[in-house]
Amino acid sequence: MNTRPTDLVNRVDLARYTRVYLSPHLDDAALSCGGTIAASPDRALVITLCTAPPSETNFNAVAVEFHAEWGLAPDEVLRVRRAEDAEAMTILGVDYVYADWLDAIYRMPEAYHSRATLYRHPLSDDPLLPQVRDLLALLIAHAPQATIYVPLGVGHHVDHLAVFESAVAFPPDRLAFYEDINYALLPGAVEQRLAEIGPTLVAEYLAFGASSFQKKIAAIAAYRSQMEALFGGTVAMEAAIAAYHAMLAQERDGYAERIWRIA
Ligand SMILES: [Zn+2]
Q1: Which of the listed residues 34, 88, 98, 118 has the most CB atoms within 10 Å of its CB?
Q2: Spacing, Cα 41 to ligand 1 middle (Å)
Q3: Are residues 92 and 215 in contact, defined by beta-carbon separation less than 8 angstroms?
Q4: What is the pLDDT of residues 7-44, one digit of tens each?
């Protein structure tokens, strides 16, 4: 797909999908929506946005910190993470494509150079904003059956906020906002984000059973380079994911993910 969303129309039959998930990074869709994707009777499409290898070799401080945390050399980061993602997508039984845009830490390394500057609203000249707008316009037109799932922006990662802020300009009946995991697992984080957005969002609970839950766990575990940084290991991941989705199932047995729609 490279940098032009129009390439997507030539590569993928968008009209067949009823669910299209925009995943800022290689893991967000599986982390946030993996149970629903695994349980879906229809094939869904995941479009992961920030999948391009960095073109520069001078990395800023936060990129150096992340590479060390993931245990990956800079020139293997995207290759390894894409291979992990392919495994996760296969486990979930979902179609997937990569936009091949740059992650914030490589896209605007002078602006997004620390944890404080990475977890913030996007700069007005951030190229991700028009890229996502163009992609959403294309999806609205060429995937007329589809609900488009985008991040709510819990945790305030700039790439997640760029997608959220681009999406709210589009017809609300075509959109659903998913809770960004792992940020949403922090007590109070979803409520804080909802308070920022305003009182216009309505919750919808999407239930799934044990077999879809197991697929979600296996898919997340495929992101081996991310496991330590996100959860402190696979055992802790499974416990945290199980607790969150059992809580969202409320009084019922099983599990649920929660999405939000504009009222
Ligand atoms: Zn992300």
Answers
A1: 34
A2: 26
A3: yes
A4: 888 889 999 999 999 999 999 999 999 999 999 989 89
Longest CA–CA separation in the chain, Å: 52
What span, in angstroms and rounded, lies between the C-alpha atoms of 34 and 224? 16
Q: Tell me the CA–centroid distance for residue 164 and ligand 1, in Å.
A: 12
Query: For residue 28, how far is its CA from the centre of ligand 1 (angstroms)?
Result: 5
Q: Is the omega angle on the peptide bond into residue 60 within 30 degrees of 0, that is, cis?
A: no
Distance (Å, whole) CA 159 – CA 181: 14
Domain extents in the chain: 6-262
Beta strands 201-208 and 255-262, pairing class? antiparallel
In the reported structure, the alpha carbon of residue 74 is separated from the centroid of ligand 1 by a whole-number distance in angstroms of 18
Query: Do 38 and 208 contact (CB within 8 A), yes or no?
Result: yes
- Considering the domain delimited by 6-262, tell me its CATH architecture: 3-Layer(aba) Sandwich (3.40)
Neighbour-count burial of 223, counting CB atoms closer than 10 A to its CB (0-12 exposed, 13-18 middle, 19+ buried) = buried
Joined together, the tokens standing for residue 96 give 């997937």
Give distance in angstroms: CA of 158 to centre of ligand 1: 9
Residue 164 has a pLDDT of: 98
Closest CA to 166 of 129, 207, 208, 115: 129
SS3 label, residue 199: coil
Q: How far is CA 33 from the centre of its chain?
A: 8
